[in-house]
Amino acid sequence: MLTRQLDTTLLDSYSDDIPSFLKKIYAARGVSESQLSLGLNKLLTPNFDQLSQALSLLEQSLVEQKRILIIGDFDCDGATASVVAVKSLRMMGAKYVDFLVPNRFEHGYGLSPEIVKLAIKEKQPDLIITVDNGISSFDGAKLAKENSIQVIITDHHLPSDALPEADAIINPNLKGCGFLSKNLAGVGVCFYLFSALKTHLNKIQYFSSNNIIPPDLRTVLDLVALGTVADVVRLDQNNRILIDQGIKRIQVKQCAPGILALLEIANRPAQTLQASDLGFAVGPRLNAAGRLSDISRGIKCLLTDDINDARRYAQELEAFNQKRKEEQARIQDQAQAIVDEQDVSEGKFALSLFDPSWHEGIVGIVAGKLKEDYHCPVAVFAKSGNFLKGSIRSIPSVHIKDLLDLVDRKNPTLIEKFGGHAMAAGLSIKAENFYTFKREFSDAIKAHLNDQIPTIELLTDGKLEAFDISLTNAEILKTAGPWGQGFEEPIFQGEFEIVDQKVVGEKHLKCRLKLVGDKQVHDAIAFFQAPIESVQAEIAYKLSINIWRGNTSLQLMVEQINSL
After folding, report:
1. What crossing angle do the helices spanning 257-265 and 221-230 adopt, rounded to 10°?
2. How far apart are CA 195 and CA 46, in angstroms?
3. pLDDT in tens, 233-259
4. How far from each other are the two terminal CA atoms of the chain, in whole angstroms?
5. CA 116 → CA 100, 101, 127, 169, 366, distances in Å?
């Protein structure tokens, strides 16, 4: 375990309004007091490159009542972005706005030629707006333009040197884009575009001229929060504002009935919602439909204003999620067997795995699990037509999109197509190129790391004094979030006596712990943990709140146990 380093200058700069317990946590994350404010007035202004072109085009489309088609991605970020776009445009008076989401098995990712052909056949759009995709869709954008369809691309994935042929591209990661936060999720980019459109339309008196009530776009912040959390983007101040404001709306049930229905089915009360509930309970149920079938059911669940319809959709999504869990368990077991059979040296820098029976919608989750277990970048492939489709999950020291750029430049015929960002990417290769890719991928990572085997130590916020291990501090931490990628929930460490322990649910360890030298006994839970033989252990833990039969108490959430 490693302890986070405190920024002592920051530590001394905080006002007395912040508890000293919390000051250390903020200082270890490099956050100034001004960056702790999560009011909407602190959001960055939408100064995106090509924004004026997009606004002019959207204004024209609304005035002339053109047919607008939203094309999203088949994950939670793409689904929420699709709903934000459709709802925003409808509130602004668009009569002909619809959505279309690729089926990953039939159309592939993004604005592909296949999805453009389907759009022309079924929807006859005048304007296509991509959300959470499009920055690598060269062929699809070209086909749309050839068919006299205007194209606005909104995306957050990293662009290559060339850009697709579009009328406007809104992406904070475009070279030269002045938007200060590069960490927006796809739904965040979408929200910003329509917020800017509302401002623009107000200025030209569009709403008053057309007898339209100017929309309150705060009403879609629940969706923005959900998509941002689910996409595991870095939680800078701007993203934390979007999440915090959205969560507050969900807590008072001023949100999409679909979110409430999914929380119901996951047995998570809206009133006590935290960001982690969106990430672990709501997001996976939406993603399951996109992984196994078609995310459009998830979009319909979030779009409907009828709670009964939302509950029916939520039941369908829950069925998909159960199937996803079963398939994931099967693939994980088989992937682990392959890893166990490999030469130890093979997995030091990277793992690349493939089996023809694996499901292309599930391999990304399996890659993420193996990455956590082996602390190295992992690529897991499934068969998709004549090709292999792979999902890669990476570690902080390897920017995986940049690394794939290097592999591609060195081997121009190896990778058919790829895209992604620092921690995750997707790619397609020919089946016969799997072992070549495996070698080149591992070699590139080995060179990038200078032959130093990647290791990930658990980062903690150090030791707590006995009096700081309290329900009060657990409640302070709950309100100090939202926590997530880049603004990690605090983990503490200490030496504890194990007073007693028992296995619950067949695989989890429930125990009572006493800090060495203290008399206070604390309830604790360690998920997927076998009983400990020693009486004392160094334990990494989170302060959590346990609510049981109306009683609220402190519970230590154990992250790691090392016997002493």
Report:
1. 50
2. 8
3. 999 999 999 999 999 999 999 999 999
4. 14
5. 10, 11, 11, 18, 31
